[in-house]
Amino acid sequence: MNEQIKMNVSPVFRKDGEKSIYVLFEDGTKKAEILLPEPGREIKALMNNGFTEEEIKGLLSYVENDRDTITEIAGKVTPLKAFLGREQGV
Predict the structure, then answer these.
(1) Count of beta carbons in the 10 Å neighbourhood of residue 9
(2) Which of 36, 40, 16, 12 is closest to 24 using CA atoms?
(3) Mean pLDDT within 78-85
(4) 23: phi then psi, degrees, rounded to nearest 5
(5) Burial letters for 36-48: b for 16+ Cβ neighbours within 10 Å, e otherwise?
(6) Strand pairing partners for 36?
(7) Over 60: is that where the pLDDT of 89 sits?
């Protein structure tokens, strides 16, 4: 997997009373979207376009291991700034 993979994080959102975060990974033409739910719930790959099964396992592991950092970034994301294409959350 490329060391220059891009990761985008959504703001924290609520669905059916549970908090979740979408995490999008891009590596050239490859894309994967992962759902990071509240602790205790299963992290899922919702979409995969080009990553191998092994790479997806690595992305899922990364999201699990860096849950706190991803959650912190998601808490700083402002939807309007994201819409305007401004970098944020870092």
Answers:
(1) 24
(2) 36
(3) 67
(4) -125, 120
(5) beeeeeebebeeb
(6) 21
(7) no
